[in-house]
Amino acid sequence: DVALTEAAIGGGLTGALLIGAASRLKSAENAVSAEQPGKVLKWLAAGISAAVTGVLAVCVLTLPEPAPTLADQVAANIGSTGVGNPITAVLLAFRAMDTLLEAIVLLFALIGVWSLTPDRFWAGRPGMQQSADPNGILAYIARVLPPIGIVVGLYIFWVGADYPGGKFQGATILAAMWLLVIMAGLADAPAINRGVLRLSLVLGPLVFIGIGFLGVAVAGAFLAYPVDYAKPLILAIEFALMPTLTLILGLLLLGAPQRAAES
Known about the structure:
This protein has helices spanning 2-25, 29-34, 39-61, 71-77, 86-94, 96-114, 137-158, 167-183, 195-219, 230-254; strands at 125-126, 257-259. It is mainly α and 263 residues long.
């Protein structure tokens, strides 16, 4: 699960972020390349990098052996959740409150990004208008890769209940495909004042909270699941969070609106 997450973020969102950064910095490329850092700055950067590396190495090498784990408790109780993937059981059952708060934090982060919008562009479209050669390599990749990426993202999401994968990994891949299409100029970012967009952004957390209160009524605790309905409820949360996470991750990378909705 960790490897899938790192691969999805590193190969998907980070790649899209670098493409966007390269397109924005192209106009300032000559000015930036003309600036050369001094020796003091170079040595300072090297020293800080070496210090961080040393601290990380010490932390890894001094970990207790065997490492502390709750794997035995998870294995003993995973049957009550109905899912086969222990990571999914931990994230949506044993520590479901943390997962709920993480989704809400991501939503608040997006609101924070939107709060940087100039007044004249409020309710406009995030990021700059993207344009690319319709016959160029970027446009070609943006036509060929997304259908494959969508299938892969949905598959990773679908198998997450019983095998490595899940909503976050799948949403990351889908967001990367969406950003690729936008950066190639084949589609435009949505205006942030659209009702459907805002509903989709809050749908996941609202369903999560609603199922949490259902647990109070039928199982005696917030986010507690009845044994016979644990897996369907967990899947309902996953299905609700999937589009929310896809939109939030994509919109976070697009940034604050910088143009009017009709542009």
